[in-house]
Design goal:
globular, alpha/beta, 4-stranded parallel sheet, 41% helix, 5 helices
Length: 116
């Protein structure tokens, strides 16, 4: 019961729990307007990986591989497990700021969570 949504889109009751999964707070979005249940910046790609990827589609495959490696780390194990369990019992919306809705960390995170 995971879904993806840009943080700039309006919040709705169909979103269920809303989690921002970016490391940096999105421009122009107030915390009140975001209506978040949490900001999971520790599940976002590392600053180094984010900077390397730079939203370049030609780096997408390698970005996915590297980000999945980060998500598999012991430091993120508990956060990943908790989010997986929560998404099995209720709707969870992963929010992201990227303009590219097909090539961003939330897409990878959603797939990673659904595989577990």
């Amino acid at each position: 019961m995971l879904k993806l949504k840009r943080i700039y889109d309006s919040a709705g009751p169909e979103d269920g729990k809303r989690y921002l999964v970016d490391r940096i707070w999105p421009r122009g979005v107030s915390k009140a307007k975001a209506r978040l249940d949490g900001w999971l910046k520790d599940l976002a790609p590392s600053a180094r990986l984010r900077d390397w990827f730079n939203h370049k589609p030609e780096r997408w495959d390698e970005f996915q591989r590297r980000y999945r490696e980060e998500l598999s780390s012991i430091e993120r194990e508990e956060m990943v497990r908790t989010l997986r369990q929560e998404s099995r019992t209720e709707r969870v919306t992963l929010l992201f700021a990227a303009k590219d809705v097909e090539h961003n960390n939330a897409v990878v995170l959603k797939a990673f969570l659904e595989e577990g």
